[in-house]
From TrEMBL:
Keyword Thylakoid found: no
PROSITE patterns: CYT_DCMP_DEAMINASES_1, CYT_DCMP_DEAMINASES_2
PANTHER family recorded: DEOXYCYTIDYLATE DEAMINASE (PTHR11086:SF18), DEOXYCYTIDYLATE DEAMINASE-RELATED (PTHR11086)
Family in the record: Belongs to the cytidine and deoxycytidylate deaminase family.
Coiled coil ranges: none
Domain CMP/dCMP-type deaminase residue range list: 8-154
Alphabetic keyword roster: Hydrolase, Metal-binding, Zinc
Name of the protein described by the UniProt record: dCMP deaminase family protein
Gene3D superfamilies registered for this protein in UniProt: Cytidine Deaminase, domain 2
Origin: domain of life: Bacteria
Amino acid sequence: MSTALRKDWDTYFMDIAYMVSTRSRCSRRHVGAVLVQGKKLLGTAYNGAPSGVPDCSEAGCMISEEVEVIVQNGIEQLVKKQRCVRTIHAEQNLLLFTDRNDREGSSVYVTDEPCWTCANMLANSGIVEIIYHRPYPKDTHKVTDLMEKKGIVFRCLENYQPPQETMMTVSN
């Protein structure tokens, strides 16, 4: 009798985060997040408009453009960011719909590296670890620095392969 191999816990929970992301109706990106304590799943969330309000698929994206000055290797650079402000990010929804007591000492698996705003919120949420898959290079340096200062484990699952049925085509 052969023994079937089991997925490791990181793969298992990231797979769930990707499955949760399929609930998103954002045309730009589907993001899912899960809250885990030990090996127990405590909550899930995805990015989208507030309940009862038209979402991006119904009303279109509300794009806000920002320009940020960053200093890299002593050289100032302007970085242009476009964000849809119609949607609440998956990490924000996860914090809105879970209890602080459940978050204390927990981990968050999220399909995408948190943006600066979400990282700030997660830093004060009681979690001790953030595991993500897809990088968000525009905020990586300052988010990584914040996590180091807070003592929050922050890691990317670089060799992870999402379930095929969760992959979306991003429209421009």
